Amino acid sequence: MGTAQPAASTRVYIVDDSAPIRARLAEMLGAMEGVRIVGEAASAAGAVAGILRLRPDSVLLDLDLTGRTGIDVMRSVHPAAPEIVFVVLTNHAEPQYRRAAHAAGAAYFLDKSRELDRVREVIAEIAATRHQEMRLQ
């Protein structure tokens, strides 16, 4: 059915201050069926504005950003859009960052240096959960 594909698609927003990392993530996810990159940002301010405007299904979020942190982004966005699934992808995998990220609204926390390859798996899981929820509505 032609209308099934858009319903199954999951929209992802990428936030990282490194253009090469954003490009790599976009390439990884762009190859996945049913996944669309709807926006990117390098700064916290740009991320908050873009996420609130576009309302993606999920956000890949680095903690180190220009201006403020990924924690600040989640604190700004999560109360206004709790349905957005935040996936933190950072080089700061220490327990205190993990706790702070989860407290601010992160559903997933990945170590960029060791778990970058898990991004596809996590986004596929989010997409499958979203698709199942839509079928139940």
What count of helical segments does DSSP give? 7
Which structural category fits the helices and strands?
A: alpha/beta
Largest sheet: 5 strands, parallel
Strand content: 15-25%
Radius of gyration: 14 Å
Spatial strand order of the main sheet: 2-1-3-4-5
CATH names the topology as Rossmann fold
Question: Overall pLDDT, averaged?
Answer: 90
Give a quick set of tags describing it.
7 helices; alpha/beta; single chain; 137 residues; Rossmann fold; disordered N terminus; five-stranded parallel beta sheet
What would you note in describing this structure?
The chain is an alpha/beta fold. The chain has a single domain, classed as Rossmann fold (3-Layer(aba) Sandwich). The chain has seven helices and five strands. The protein has a five-stranded parallel sheet with strand order 2-1-3-4-5, sandwiched between helices. Strand 3, helix 4 and strand 4 form a beta-alpha-beta unit. Helix 3 runs parallel beside helix 4.
